[in-house]
Amino acid sequence: MSTTIYPKRAPDSDILKFYQDSKGQLWCYTVNGKLGVIYAGQVHHQTMQGYPLKSLNSQIYDIIEYDNKIFVCILSGMYQVTANGFREIHSFQRPHFMKFNDQLLIITIDSVFRYDRGQFNLVTETPHTDRDPKSHIATIDSSWYSYTPNTFKEYTLLEYNLDGSYQQKALPFQIYNVKILDNTLYMFTSEGVYQKSGQHVNKVLDIPIATNLLMDKSQNQWITTYGNGVKRLTPINRMVKMHDHPSGFERVICSDQNVYVIGKTRDTVWRMKGYEDLEVLHTGSRIRDLEELPNGQVTISSEYTNNKIFLDLPNDSILVANGRHMVELYEIHEDSISVNQRVDLPNFNLIKYTIKLDQESLEFINRRGIYRCNIRPPFTTTVVFDIVVPTHAFYNQEDLWVATNGAGIWVLSESDTTRITREENGLSSNYASKILKNENKVWALTASSVDIIQLVDGRIGDVNRVPEMNVKVNDIALFKDQVVMATDDGLYSFRQQEMFVEQSLPKFVIESCISGNEDTPLKDSLLVVNSGVKGFDLTYSTLSLASPLPISYRYRMVSLEAEDPVGWVYTNENQLIMSNLKAASYQLEIQYRHQNMPWTTGASIQVEVLPVWWETLWFRVLLILIASGVITLVSFGVLNFLRARKRQRSEKLFAELRSRKAQLKPHFVFNALNSIRNFMLINDVQKSDSYLTAYSRLMRKVLDLSDQLLIRLSDELDLVRLYLSLEQLRLGHSFDYLVQVADGLDASQLKFPAMITQPFIENAVWHGLREVETGGELLVRVEEINSQIGITIKDNGVGFDLSDQKTNSYGMLIINDKIRLMKETYEFDIQLSVQSRLGEGTEVLITIPKLM
C-alpha cells in the first residue's frame, strides 16, 4: 500500500524528479518548467533565502548544487537560481548534469563539457544514435545512462563512457527516467520501476508511470509519478503477502527448495515449491513438527508420537528422540528407513529442539536446559546451559546463541558470556522464542516483534526491528533470500537484505496559541498571558510518516508554587482550552502516544499568567503597609483609651481602698474606747492609764501608716502586737499571744496590705478568747508556703459554726471588700481560708504573693 501526498500544494501533478540540497531543501520539478521547494513541512515557491521560483516555461531536465549555487537545466540551456530569479549561464541542446571527481560536467546530446568558474571546456564528443537520447541521465563513475524511443511502446537504454564508447539495450516499455541508487541503475517506466543488474532487468516496484525515487532516513521510499502526485512506500508496505488463510499459520519450516507450513489449528501441513501456490501435503491432528529428509521424504511428528524430532546426520542417517529415556538412530534407504541403534539415557526428558549432532554426541534443548549426551559408549549426559529456561539455540562458529523465556538472548563463548536484552540493547522483548542466523544478521522472534541483530566482525551491533504488522507473528524461517513469517493472517515474506530502521517518532507541532483573541507566540517554550486575560487556547497536532494510528493525548498544568502532585488529564482532542487561571507561574506538559508506543513528551511550556494591578506584589505590599499603619493607629488609640480607663479605674479603686481604710479606723477606735470605758467604770485607774498609753502608741502607729496601702510586714506585725497587748490588758491576761516569723524570712523586706490581719485577730479575741476565763492562746505565725507568704491566726477559743452568717462582724465585711479591691488594683491574688469548730477554736490562713 502507498500513500499519495501533496496533490494540491505541489507545483504540478506531473512531478519528474526530487533533489535535496545541502540546506535540507527538497526540490521537485515538473515537465512544464515549474519548481517547488519543500521545507518546514510545506511546499514553497521561493527558497529559504527568499529567491523567487517562477516558471521557466520549458521542461526541466536536471537540477544540481555546485559551489554553493543551484543550477537548473532546461531544453535550451543552463540557468542559475539567484535573488532576482533565474539567470541564464549558457545555451546548450538538452543539457544534463554529472559530477565526476568533484567536477561539474554538462552532458548534451553530442558533447560533454566541464564547468569551471563560469567557463565551459569540451571534454569529449558523444556518438550519435539513430534517435536523439532523452534528457534524463544517470551517472555511475565515468559512465552515464540515457534512453531513446524506438516505437511508442519500446525504448532503448543507452550507456555512454567518457572514452566515447557506448552500448544499447532494447526494452519493451516506455522509459520516463533513469537513476542510480546504491550503485545500481533504476528505470522508471510505464509498467513500473525496474532494476538493471548486469545484463538482467527485474521489476522491483509495481507503480506505473513512476518518474523518480528517494529513500529517507526511516527507509520510506518517496516516488514521483506522472499524473498521480507523490507516493510513499514504508518498509512494511514492501512486505509481500504470499498466502492468505482464515485461521492463520502456526509453523513454517524451509528446506533448500520447499516451504512447509503447519496451520494454526495444527491439523494440516502445506507445501510450497519455490514461490508457487500451497498444496496440501498431510492432514491429521495435533501436528507438532516435520523434517525433510535427504532423500526428499518428509517425516511428521505429533503429540501422539512421543514428540519425535528428526534431524539429518552424516552417512544418510537420522536421529529420533523417542520418549523420555531413549534416542534412536535410523538408517535412510531409497524408499524406507530402518533402526540402526538405540541408546537408553536415564532422566533424558523430552527433546524440544536438536542443536548440534555428530557421530559421537547430541546437543539438545528440553524443558530444563541445554544438554549434551554421548550416542556412543559410554552413554553420559552433561549440562551445557541451565541458568534459565531456553527456547531455541544455534551455534555461530564456537559461540552458542541461546534464546530464553524472559532473560533475553545469551551468547556463550569460551571466554565470557554476553546478554542481549531489552534494557541494554533495545531488544523488543526479553521473551524470545526463536533465533536464526544468516550472514551478518541474527533474526529473533520475540513476544513483541521480529528483531534484527546486526553482526559487525563477529561482534554484536545495532538491534533493529521489523515494522509492526498489527498481526501476531507465530514463527519465522529463512528461505533463499527471503525471511518467511507465519502469522495469524497468513504467510508473509520480505528480502533478507531489506534495511529496517526505527521509524522516526511522530512529530508534535503546536499550530497556534491564542490568548485574549490574539495570536500569542511561544518564545523558548515560554507563554506569557497578559494581565486580565486569565486563559489561552492551544491547538496542536502530531505528524507521522508511519501508518496512520489514532493518537491520544494527556496534559497536566502544575503551579510552580504547589507542593501536591497534579494528575494527568486524558483527551483525544488536539485543542487545549485553559481559563480562569490565577496569576502565577505554571508548567504545562503535553504528552502523546498511539497504541504501539509509550507516552512521549510533545511540549513542555512555562506559562506566566501576569497579574492585574491589584494582584501585583507592589500593590499587596502597599496594601499591607496601609493596613499595618491603620492597625497601628487604631491600636495606639485603643491602647491609650484602655490606659485612660485603667487609670480612671485605678484612681477609683484607690479611693475606695482609702475609704475602706477610713471605715476601719472608727471601728477600731470604737472598740478601744469601749475598753477604756470599762476600766473607768470599775475605777481601775492604773489599768486605764496603761491602756491609754498603749492605745496612744497604737494610734500613732496607725496615723503613720494611714496613707499607705502596702506597708512592711514588720510594721503590720508591730500593729498586731500593740493591739494584742491592749486586748490582753483589757481581758485581764486571760490569754497569751505569740507573734512568730519563720526562719529565713525578713519581715522588714516584705510588703503587705495594711491592717488586713487586724479584723481576724479582733474576732479571735472578741468572739473566741473573751469567753475563756483562763488558758487562752493566740498564735500569729508568718511563713513561706509554695513561694507565697502565709499568715496563720490560730486561737483555742470557743469557735463558731461557719454556716452561721451572724458570726461575721462588720470588720470582716470591710476586710472582704478590701481584699476584692486589692485584687482588682494590684492584680494579685489574696487567698483567705477560715476553719473553726465549736469548743475547739478557729484558724485563719491569709495567703498573698511574696512582694518585695
Q: What's the SSE blueprint?
A:
Elements: E1 3-5, E2 15-20, E3 26-30, E4 35-39, E5 42-44, E6 60-66, E7 69-74, E8 77-82, E9 85-91, E10 96-100, E11 103-107, E12 111-116, E13 119-125, E14 138-140, E15 143-149, E16 155-161, E17 166-171, E18 175-181, E19 184-189, E20 193-197, E21 200-205, E22 210-215, E23 221-225, E24 230-233, E25 240-244, E26 249-254, E27 258-263, E28 268-273, E29 279-283, E30 287-292, E31 298-302, E32 310-313, E33 317-321, E34 326-332, E35 337-344, E36 353-357, E37 361-365, E38 370-374, E39 381-385, E40 390-396, E41 399-404, E42 409-412, E43 417-420, H1 422-425, E44 432-438, E45 441-446, E46 450-456, E47 459-465, E48 473-479, E49 482-487, E50 490-495, E51 507-515, E52 518-519, E53 526-529, E54 536-543, E55 552-559, E56 569-571, E57 575-578, E58 585-593, E59 600-609, H2 617-681, H3 685-704, E60 710-712, H4 713-730, E61 735-741, E62 751-753, H5 758-769, E63 776-785, E64 788-795, H6 810-826, E65 831-837, E66 841-849
Parallel strand pairs: 53-59, 61-63
Antiparallel strand pairs: 1-24, 2-3, 3-4, 4-5, 6-7, 7-8, 8-9, 10-11, 11-12, 12-13, 14-15, 15-16, 16-17, 18-19, 19-20, 20-21, 22-23, 23-24, 25-50, 26-27, 27-28, 28-29, 30-31, 32-33, 33-34, 34-35, 36-37, 37-38, 38-39, 40-41, 41-42, 42-43, 44-45, 45-46, 46-47, 48-49, 49-50, 51-52, 51-54, 54-57, ...
Helix pairs in contact: 2-3, 2-6, 3-4, 4-5
